[in-house]
C-alpha cells in the first residue's frame, strides 16, 4: 500500500537543483524547479543505470551525468538519447517545510 514518506526539508534543495533520496532498495531524485515546485522520480538512469543525483537540472529536465540523456522531471519522459525508456514519477507534497513522496 502506498504511503507518504519524508524525503527531505525544502531548504535541503536549491531552486533548479536536485538531491538523492534512498528508501529501502529504491533510489529517487527530488527536484526543486526554478518555480519553487518539488518533483520526484526514479533516481537511476534507464540507459546505463547511473545515479542521476550528480546530473544537471535545466529547462524542466534532469540530465544524466554519464551520457547526457535527459528526462522531464514532471513526467519522467526520456527526452534525449541514449535513454529511450521513461522513468517513473511519484506524487509529492510539501508540508511544514518538509518534502514527502508517495511510495
Helix and strand run: EEEEEEEEEEE
| Largest beta-sheet characterization | 4 strands, antiparallel
| Average of the residue pLDDT scores | 96
The Rg value, from CA coordinates, equals: 13 Å
The helix-and-strand class reads mainly beta
**Number of distinct helices:** 0
In one word, what is the shape?
A: globular
Describe the overall structure.
Its cofactor is [2Fe-2S] cluster. Residues 5-101 form the Rieske domain. GO terms for molecular function: 2 iron, 2 sulfur cluster binding; metal ion binding. InterPro entries: MocE_2FeS (IPR012747), Rieske_2Fe-2S (IPR017941), Rieske_2Fe-2S_sf (IPR036922). The chain has 103 residues and is an all-beta fold. It has one domain: Rieske [2Fe-2S] iron-sulphur domain (Rieske Iron-sulfur Protein), CATH 2.102.10. The chain has no helices and eleven strands. A four-stranded antiparallel β-sheet has the order 2-3-4-9, with no helix packed on it. Strand 5 and strand 6 form a beta hairpin.
